[in-house]
Write a structure and sequence with these properties.
The protein is an all-alpha fold and 101 residues long. 73% of the residues lie in helices and 0% in strands. The longest helix has 28 residues. It has one domain. α1 packs across α2 and α2 crosses α3.
Amino acid sequence: MLTFLNLAQLILYIPLLALLGQGLLFVLAGARRDGNFFYQLLKLLSKPFTAVVRMATPRKVADRHVPIVTFFLLLLVYFVVTFERINLCVTNNMVGQPGCQ
């Protein structure tokens, strides 16, 4: 179970950082962000997650808001997984184990 939680945490970490980088480039590059190679790379990394959120949200939610919604949903799930990982380590007295550090 600990391995699964560690893997889930790592999988969530990648799109979270990609969406955070997209937001930073949105602020820094402005309207020229669509021509930026790194912005496109970060968009590609987060695309599977934003596509799922786009399908789950109603059409009234604008496409430009979907990455923000995706970021906060992933952040919420990341915190839940982290809490469960900590809870598993503490309740099973595995604090010194390599996966619990």
